[in-house]
Amino acid sequence: MRRAGIDTYRQPVLYLHRDCTVSRAEGFAALTRVSVKCAGQEVVAVLNIVTGDWLGKDEAALSDAAWQMLAPEPGAIAILAHAEPPRAASVLRAKVFGTRLNEAQFEAVLRDALAARLSDIELAAFVTVCAGDRLDLDESVALTRAMISVGDRIDWGSGPVLDKHCVGGLPGNRTTPIVVSIVAALGHRIPKTSSRAITSPAGTADVMATMTDVDLDIGALRNVVDREGGCMASGGRMRLSPADDILIQIERPLDLDGDGQMVASILSKKAAAGSTHVLIDIPVGATAKVRTMAAADAIARRLVFVGEAVGLRIGVHISDGRQPVGRGIGPALEAHDVLEVLRNSPQAPRDLRERALDVAGAVLELLPAIAPGSGRIQAEGALASGAAMRKFIAICMAQGGFREPGRARFVEPFVAPADGQLGCINNRQLARIAKLAGAPRNPTAGVVCTLREGDSIRRGMPLFLVHAGSKGELAYALDYARAHPDTLSLRESRS
């Protein structure tokens, strides 16, 4: 056995030379699923055939993922054989032909996925047959419970544990750090775990990572919450609904995110994190993730139904998703917006401040002791008094210390080609420009856009600023912007 030194993300991959006698004797072919046993451990890997001379005929190389799972000693000898069909294979076939699945069947699929017994092709088939409207309400409940059962779960003891989540699709909508700081400053528990970006320019964990440490284990997270009442950590080191992380990696390239799976994904992580009261923000807009009010209402009904079934009190906040929130799109740029709001700066983006107060108020009003309408008043008081900012710094210090977010090395405007009035903003294309500039891999990269629908535009004025860490990425992002002039569409000004 030897290490190939190839990153295949989660997929265990085995490499054999095309003239390997074991491969010929077993009848292995490219993409065969092979059982690799070594020193009492086993991993099922997908076979890739090597035609070059970097691998010997008596050697088997493992991708980084497979090597970490098997952890062989140097020079170890392995036994290779055709892998047994995964236990979930029959469940997958049943769902393909329209069978409704129960919790045990979903759990069988998820456990095989976690054990790497399912190939990406099989996982793609599972995601596909569960997409759209192919999961009814009872199946959404079953999938959510199965996702919870195959991971760890945090128990915070008695009393309410608040949380919030946004379904996404709206650049710059970074309310979480503000909301957590407000709610914790008012004396409530809100242990917030967030993911890093998968296809967006920034996730909450990416934004917080520009200001403090976010890669906490469960023990460290408990210490922070016990000390400050809240946290803003990445869920990457915690096994909270780990099967969801695998499914997400399949869903994103396929651009499949059905309501049933999305609800199971959100609520399984909330339940696993020990939350009891959860506010879900659903931005609605033509280029947001949820595009119509009818779709938002359908998601809201499913969230409430599934939430009640797994013991969560769910509140739904439907918000305006027509255009970006704040000014920055990208980890550090969004962090600067957050800090301006928390510091009550006169230059703080007003839309981000108002949206954060709306969400914080709705979170607080999930508690029975807080009357409707009073939650936002309490939230505004905590922000205006500086209590939220002090709590934010205290949480950062408990997580390892606070630091100011950085700035990009290269900044260039994208200017208006003509006079006019700003018509609509394409959220997806603006986010794409931020990603091409280097976000979130480069935390200082992204886009700054201060314009909003209806603003008057003059030829040559900046529509937005592109921030990048290198000239190449800057040019790449600007080339895309020039090729997509409808990112910020202009209409003729009315006289």
The end-to-end distance, rounded to whole angstroms, is 75 Å
Largest sheet: 6 strands, mixed
Q: Whole-number radius of gyration? A: 25 Å
Assembly type of the shown chains? Answer: single chain
CATH class of the largest domain reads: Alpha Beta
Please, how many domains? 3
Helix-residue proportion:
40-55%
Count every beta strand, where a strand is a DSSP E run of 2 or more residues. 18
Mean pLDDT over the residues: 93
Catalytic activity: thymidine + phosphate = 2-deoxy-alpha-D-ribose 1-phosphate + thymine
EC number: 2.4.2.4
Family: Belongs to the thymidine/pyrimidine-nucleoside phosphorylase family. Type 2 subfamily.
GO molecular function: 1,4-alpha-oligoglucan phosphorylase activity; thymidine phosphorylase activity
Overall description:
It is a single chain. With 495 residues, this protein is an alpha/beta fold. It is 40% helix and 18% strand. The strands form five sheets. The protein has a six-stranded mixed sheet. A four-stranded antiparallel sheet has the order 12-15-17-13, with helices on both faces. Strands 7-10-11 form a three-stranded parallel sheet, with helices on both faces. The protein starts with a strand and ends with a strand. The mean pLDDT is 93.
